[in-house]
Amino acid sequence: MKIRNDGRQDLTFNATINGPVLAMAAQRDDRLLIGGSFTDVSGQPRTSLARLHPDGSADPTFASPINLTGNSVKAIAVQADGKILIGTTNAMTLPGGSSKVARLHPDGTVDTSFSLATDYVDRLLVQPDGKIVKLGFTGGTPEYLRRYLPDGSVDAGFSVPVDNKVTNVAL
Predict the structure, then answer these.
(1) How far apart are the first and last CA of the chain?
(2) Are 144 and 133 contacting, i.e. CB atoms less than 8 angstroms apart?
């Protein structure tokens, strides 16, 4: 379901998704990125990650080569340059190694210049200065609010332990 700015349901939006949606992020062109545990979006095979047109139909031009079978996308964030960050419950096999966070180009292909080694991801946010904030486990320790530089390296000056009951963050 899509809600208009005035609070009414947008009846032109008709997306059919065969599993839970756990994360969403709007792009500047009114398309919507969704992540979760699903295999079909509006009649198109899409495993855990898809982009929807404003009417809810699956965007056939967005297809990530990452194999997400058996994995769930829990976090999505869009950077100012249009690149897309995704965080998953299990490690993804990526060019150059595996990680639970990947950066995609706007068409869904993997950005191989980005590397962010991390453990469990609950949420991803992008600050106005391009730094990336992650809520989740890191190195087996309790929940952490950790910040990364735009290239994926750890911002050593910022690491905040938080109560493991924290499930969401906002800027």
Answers:
(1) 25
(2) no
Burial 117-140 (b: 16+ CB within 10 A, else e): bbbbbbbbbbeeeeebbbbbbbee
User: Residue with structure tokens 């990530």?
Assistant: 64
pLDDT in tens, 43-99: 999 989 999 999 999 999 998 888 787 888 999 999 999 999 998 888 887 776 778
Given a contact cutoff of 8 angstroms between Cβ atoms, the answer to whether 160 and 144 are in contact is yes
- pTM of this structure: 0.87
- Which residues, including other chains, have CB under 8 Å from residue 97's CB and lie 6 or more apart? 115, 117
User: Can you say how many angstroms the Cα of residue 133 is from the centroid of all Cα atoms in its chain?
Assistant: 12
Strands 44-45 and 73-78 turn out to be unpaired
